[in-house]
Amino acid sequence: MKSIVSQLAFADGEVLVTGEMNELEKASFLSTLNKMAEKKKNTGKEMFVGVTRVLSDNESKVFFEKVKGQYPEMDIKIPFLTVMETLQYKPAESAAKVQCPVLVVIVGQDSVNPPEQGKALYDAVASGTKELYEEADACHYDIYEGAFF
Fold it and tell me: Which UniProt keywords apply (predicted)?
């Protein structure tokens, strides 16, 4: 691998998903996820939900509503346990081992993966050759089309 470009990423899935929850809310949420994981393990069945049940922020809801007309194949259901996988994903731990050049791209108005998460990922990168690029006025999905693309 010669270089890495990380675009609109996060550093810590648990912080991303549960960061706004108080301890009681977090415990209840994790308990529900654990019950769902146990059910999947025991029965092989799991709950599938619309993408915006997992990506439930307003920015994602608006984006998916807009594009599903253009791209009907994006109107899918995904496993709700994707949330558990996101909780367990901690890219900053891997970034601490990276030695090749790295570019981390963030947007300043991101409500999906807040810019603080991208900055934390950048800070975790071990490489001495790294750059943080920010489009301060862009939202998460703006980076895929239009003026910020």
Answer: Hydrolase
